[in-house]
Write a structure and sequence with these properties.
Elements: E1 3-5, E2 8-9, H1 10-17, H2 21-27, E3 49-50, E4 73-74, H3 80-86, H4 89-105, E5 110-111, H5 135-151, E6 157-161, E7 174-176, H6 179-197, E8 201-204, E9 208-209, E10 212-213, H7 218-228, E11 234-236, H8 245-251, H9 265-274, H10 279-301, H11 308-326, E12 328-332, E13 342-347, E14 365-366, H12 372-380, E15 384-389, H13 401-412, E16 416-422, H14 441-453, E17 457-462, E18 477-482, H15 488-497, E19 529-531, H16 540-545, E20 563-565, E21 569-571, E22 577-585, E23 591-601, E24 612-621, E25 626-633, E26 640-642, E27 647-649, E28 653-662, E29 665-674, H17 693-700, H18 726-744, H19 751-762, H20 766-771, H21 779-798
Parallel strand pairs: 3-5, 4-14, 6-8, 7-9, 7-19, 8-11, 13-15, 13-16, 16-17, 17-18
Antiparallel strand pairs: 1-2, 9-10, 12-18, 20-22, 21-22, 22-25, 23-24, 23-28, 26-27, 28-29
This protein binds beta-D-glucopyranose.
Length: about 800
């Protein structure tokens, strides 16, 4: 098969040449919620694409994309924030293989993940589903997972492309971000994963990017993704993200998911007739769907079947190893590892009813579930005793006075206390952002009360994203366990007693206060636009540049042993360098560490972050062992994005290469001279971390766009926006009532899913109502409804 352009095969083009226009249009939209259309006459089978990302969510009954209805049992691996904290590409590739094998066993063609959006602000509702605040860590983690999944003959899907960093009004918010920031921060991770792992598919984001829906963004979907980076797979919509399908196809969007029951078909045909969409664009999209369908079928035919129950045992053990590798020890005065003996008080309902994954489309039905309480009790065995008190309610995070008293009594009778706190499920989910970074008050109260009375208290914090820890100095140790998947309980026990080491290093900074952050001022504040006025200054780039210390810096994580770096050796020429530095385990236990290489540009035409991570190496060493950490750097290590030439440019000059164990723990430094380079056009730096109107205008290179108001109503106005007019309120009430009625009969309904469902529905754009109505509300009727609502409201205003 010959690759014609960006992976479209001649065979697929030949098939397309025999199709009618109607067939091509049908083929470029889903058959149902999770499957593509088959083309029986040509022997092209339908295939399944489903979530993702850290476990398979294959629904066999009722379908949804917000995690409501059940799915087949599958291994729930740690979520991305824990995976990102491992900094371990080999391990993540292993996870990818396991995910791929489970997909194969269930005949799934494409797994919808990994997600690798940048954590612009820790309050992002899907922070648990993303790896890092840094594009290099995100891109490398995603590439490793993609390699593993695809090595099993299953497609991976990079999502959500691009600049998708909040859940508030997620389907119609406009990310306003300057070109340099987009390239250096928000696109680089995708670029790394595309170039290093050639994913079969990419999913476009719901949001707009600088005024254009991500699914209609030709510059993103064709010019950057395909022409520049060489992506040769298929681009699909996020679920019901379509805004104007003909414009999407023109931009390079191949597949609308899920099926919109033909809602757009006539409009696509009309656009071809009118010449606003070329027939060739439609042909290429259809050919890409066929190419992928044939690939899925060929891979399936060439591979043996998977023994699922054997795989589940093996994958559970892997999930346990990975959860320990991502668990990050934030503080430790020596209390850890605990001797597995004596009386240990385990306090906290999450020890028995674990929080191990996040809510929404990534909700996996685990094959089994470890708890800290059961695994620790088993581990201690006859050598001691575990006393347990829940301390709070796992679902609500609230506590009664009696629960607090019981917790204090258990602790008073114990040699050591393991206190498990964290974010209840309702605090973090797809569909909405957090509005603060605090733990539930009852959890903070428990920390205060127990640390005041006991001198051996270990706090285990679970949750997918940073929380503020004003109490951080009071416990004897803090273990950030993230959302460690179905084996998290066992992994936490392993780390607590030292059967495993805490392998994690933070892939995101933990701020002292959310309000410290430059991104805070414009995070989820404006319903219509997200103005990225902090530009490059996200995470450690902000903390290091503006000397606002994080509570725990990027890259931080303690070990049960200690490491020392020797003298770094830098070799290479031009813009290529290899840094090699001896690392010695100077402690008494085996352990791993991550050597991080940051680059500081000594003099630059453009403002640049104080330092940026450009490479890292994870090493596991026996006590006394020394090995070299080797990091290779190419021209991108020194480059900036030049907005005048729209390209990467390296300026000649001196660069500092800073090696260390976190962004603030730099222990070795070398200088690198880059002798030849290009010209960069100056753009004035904002005076502070948050650009003013004038500065933001200069960064954007054009006036700050005015958001399109949601009234008069249009396709992007949401269900919540309808409350702006009397007629709209009636429609809104009817729509919400309908959804909540259907929801009320759902046997799986809980308060958390109801909250998510409400948020999801209120954020839904009007076009999506038509697309999910299964033909009951056509787009033409939606147009009429919108027109009537607008006309009535304007008339009422005039009267
Ligand atoms: C999410 C995607 C997910 C899709 C299918 C969407 O709501 O944004 O990440 O893959 O649903 O469930």
């Amino acid at each position: 098969m010959t690759d014609i352009a960006h992976g479209v095969t001649q065979q697929a083009l030949d098939i397309v040449s025999r199709l009618t226009r109607a067939e091509k249009i049908r083929l470029t939209s889903g058959k149902d919620f999770w499957r593509t259309e088959p083309l029986d006459s040509e022997g092209v089978a339908s295939f399944m694409l489903t979530d993702g990302p850290h476990g398979l969510r294959k629904q066999t009954g009722d379908t949804d994309h917000v995690g409501l209805n059940s799915s087949v049992p599958a291994t729930c691996f740690p979520t991305a924030s824990a995976l990102g904290s491992t900094w371990d590409a080999d391990l993540l590739e292993e996870v990818g293989h396991a995910l791929g094998r489970e997909c194969r066993a269930e005949e799934v063609g494409v797994l919808l993940g990994p997600g690798l959006n940048i954590k612009r602000h820790p309050a992002g509702g899907r922070s648990f589903e993303y790896f890092s605040e840094d594009p290099l860590v995100s891109g490398k983690a995603a590439a490793a997972l993609v390699r593993g999944i695809q090595a099993e003959g299953v497609g991976a899907c990079l999502k959500h492309f691009a600049a998708n960093s909040q859940e508030t009004r997620r389907m119609s918010n406009d990310s306003i971000v300057d070109e340099r920031t987009l390239r250096e921060i928000y696109l680089t991770g995708f670029e790394i994963a595309v170039k290093e792992a050639q994913p079969w598919t990419v999913m476009c984001a719901y949001n707009l990017v600088n005024g254009v829906h991500a699914g209609e963004h030709r510059e993103l979907l064709t010019e950057i993704l395909r022409d520049e980076w060489g992506f040769d797979g298929l681009v699909m919509t996020d679920w019901i993200a379509t805004h104007e399908r003909p414009a999407g196809i023109h931009a390079g969007l191949d597949l609308e998911m899920p099926s919109s029951a033909g809602a757009w078909d006539q409009r696509v045909a009309d656009a071809v007739d009118a010449g606003t969409l070329s027939g060739e664009d439609l042909d290429v999209a259809a050919a890409r769907v066929i190419t992928l369908a044939l690939k899925v079928a060929a891979e399936r035919a060439s591979r043996a079947t998977v023994d699922v129950s054997a795989a589940h045992d093996e994958h559970h053990a892997l999930a346990r190893r990975v959860a320990a590798a991502g668990a990050t020890l934030l503080t430790n005065d020596g209390v850890l590892p605990l001797a597995p003996e004596g009386r240990i008080a385990v306090i906290g309902a999450f020890a028995d009813k674990p929080r191990f994954q996040g809510g929404g489309s990534a909700l996996v039905n685990p094959t089994r579930l470890d708890t800290v309480l059961a695994t620790l009790t088993e581990r201690i065995g006859d050598a001691g005793e575990v006393l347990y008190a829940p301390g709070y309610d796992a679902a609500t995070g609230e506590a009664t006075d009696a629960q607090l008293t019981d917790a204090l009594t258990a602790a008073a009778n114990a040699d050591s206390v393991v206190l498990v706190v964290g974010l209840p499920l309702s605090y973090e989910s797809e569909g909405y952002d957090r509005d603060h970074l605090q733990l539930p008050p009852s959890h903070t109260r428990l920390i205060q009360a127990l640390t005041a009375r006991h001198d051996r208290v270990v706090v285990v914090n679970v949750g997918g994203a940073p929380v503020e820890m004003p109490w951080a100095d009071t416990p004897n140790a803090i273990l950030q366990a993230y959302l460690g998947g179905q084996a998290a309980g066992g992994a936490i026990t392993d780390v607590l007693v030292g059967d495993a080491e805490p392998g994690g290093r933070l892939a995101e900074s933990f701020p002292v206060n959310a309000t410290d952050l430059a991104s805070h001022a414009n995070f989820a504040t404006n319903p219509l636009q997200a103005q990225y006025r902090e530009n490059l200054y996200v995470g450690y780039r902000f903390h290091d540049m503006f000397s606002v210390p994080a509570r725990f810096p990027f890259g931080h994580g303690l070990s049960y042993t200690s490491f020392q770096l020797g003298k770094a050796k830098v070799t290479g020429s031009g813009t290529d360098r290899t840094v090699s530095v001896p690392v010695t385990n100077t402690g008494t236990r085996a352990g791993s560490t991550v050597v991080q290489a940051y680059v500081h540009d000594v003099e630059s035409t453009l403002h640049r972050p104080e330092q940026e991570l450009r490479g890292f190496a994870k090493l596991t060493l026996e006590p006394g062992q020394t090995a070299d950490a080797v990091v290779t750097l190419d021209e991108r290590a020194w480059a900036v994005w030049d907005t005048a030439t729209h390209g990467w440019v390296v300026e000649a000059g001196t660069f500092e290469l800073r090696l260390g164990f976190s962004s603030t723990d730099i222990v070795a430094m070398s200088t690198v001279e880059i002798n030849a380079g290009g010209e960069v056009t100056a753009v004035p730096a904002p005076a502070s971390a948050i650009a003013t109107d004038t500065e933001f205008t200069a960064l954007l290179g054009r006036p700050i766009p005015q958001p399109t108001p949601s009234f008069p109503f249009h396709y992007d106005s949401t269900v919540a926006d309808l409350s702006a007019t009397a007629g709209g309120r009636l429609v809104e009430k009817a729509l919400m009532a309908q959804v909540m009625k259907a929801f009320g009969t759902d046997p799986n309904a809980t308060d958390e899913t109801e909250q998510m469902m409400q948020a999801f529905m209120r954020n839904m754009p009007l076009r999506a109502i038509a697309m999910t109505s299964e033909g009951k509300l056509s787009l033409a009727n939606l147009d009429r409804l919108i027109k009537t609502l607008n006309a009535t409201a304007l008339k009422a205003k005039r009267a």
